[in-house]
Amino acid sequence: MAKAASGAQRTARRVVQTAIPDFDRLIHEKTRLAIVSALAVNPTLTFNELKAILKTTDGNVSVHTRKLEEANYLTCRKSFQGRMPRTEYSLTAAGRRALERYLNHMEALIRATRRV
Amino acid sequence: MPDALRDHAVDNLRYIRETMERAGSFTSIPGWGGFIIGLTALATTAIAEPLTAWTPRLWLWTWLGEAVLAGSIGAFTMVRKARRAGTLLASGPARRFFISYFAPMVVGAILTAAMVRIGSYEPLPAMWLLLYGTAFVSSGAFSIRVIPILGVCFMILGLAAAFVPLGVGNLLLGAGFGGLHIIFGLIIARSYGG
Questions:
Q1: Which of B10-14, B105-109, B158-162 has the lowest mean pLDDT?
Q2: Does the beta carbon of B88 lie under 8 angstroms from any beta carbon of chain A?
Q3: Does residue B102 come out as left (phi exceeding 0), alpha (psi in the -120 to 50 range) or beta?
Q4: Would you say B131 and B151 are in contact if contact means Cβ atoms under 8 Å apart?
Q5: A115 with A43: CB under 8 angstroms?
Q6: For a FRET experiment, which of A23, A51, B126, B135 has its CA 20 to 30 Å from that of B164?
């Protein structure tokens, strides 16, 4: 039963990705979507704060923030607090627009597939 | 297929909303800590009640002792809950929560000293309940949804305490710091992870 449900979810995910032409696949990934969403309600978040919100590993945060940074959705500022390195992320205007577009796509999808 | 697509989109929107709520709120409010504070406040109410007519100064010191005890219990259980959940007490939402929470508390401390100086004890229960309620209403904007409701309940008790003698005011302190802490402490403990 659970296998069938996850299969349907995977199919739905594929259909979402192909059905909408300018769909942003970069933030469709769950961890990246969470990073962008968390930064949408905070001016900045440190690496450790993101890790605590996402309840994930250092490596996972590191990989996904780098991908978002490469797409110019995040900016990263490195500094030192005493002797401890501190990495701070914030959402760029492009990142905020990407999230808004993504939300609009999801809402459009819900409207288009509304049950009668 | 349209149903699966729709469910998937709804799930995604829910995931975004939940992440935003978690990221923008301070959630380490200790439910069990509140429950224990409620119990100590009920004991303080009973101890302080005879003092209201006899020696209001000693009544005041009894409640100040309770405030110190409650603050210690609250701080200890909050740190424990935050550690267990892996949340940071210095995060942006936590800082905003603490600033909004402590501003009315500082006002309360200053006004208490000013009133004691002129020997006016009767308005103290109303003032404490109203300002404690204000602290939760304002800080609740950065925390779990139940916190502003708790604040409003304290303010309603404060309103009632504004028009009664000190003996009844003491009982209303018990209803607030005792009863409300116990009820909301249990709600938070059951619904918000301890």
A1: B10-14
A2: yes
A3: alpha
A4: no
A5: no
A6: B135
The 3-state DSSP class for residue A27 equals coil
Q: Which two tokens mark B162?
A: 């504004």
Cβ atoms of A94 and A72 closer than 8 Å: yes
User: What pLDDT digit, counting tens, does each position of B47-97 carry?
Assistant: 999 999 889 999 999 999 999 999 999 999 999 998 887 777 877 788 889
Q: Does A84 touch chain B (CB under 8 A)?
A: no
Q: Tell me the C-alpha distance between B27 and B32, whole Å.
A: 14
Residue of A13, A53, A113 with shortest CB distance to B6? A113
Nearest CA in chain B to A19: B5
pLDDT band at A1 (very low <50, low <70, confident <90, very high): very low
What is the edge-to-edge ordering of all strands in the sheet holding A84-91? A45-46, A84-91, A74-81
Q: Is B8 exposed, middle or buried (0-12, 13-18, 19+ CB in 10 A)?
A: buried
Give B182→chain A minimum CA distance, Å.
29
ipTM: 0.77
**Cα–Cα distance measured from residue A94 to residue B136, given in angstroms and rounded to the nearest whole number:** 36
The Cα of A24 is separated from the nearest Cα of chain B by a number of Å equal to 13
Instruction: Say yes or no: A53 contacts chain B, CB-CB below 8 A.
Output: yes
Measured distance CA(A27)–CA(A44) in Å, rounded = 18
Nearest to A55 by CA among A75, A84, A77, A35: A35
Provide the 3-class DSSP secondary structure of residue B49.
coil
* CB B187 within 8 Å of CB B146: yes
> What per-residue confidence (pLDDT) applies to A64?
96
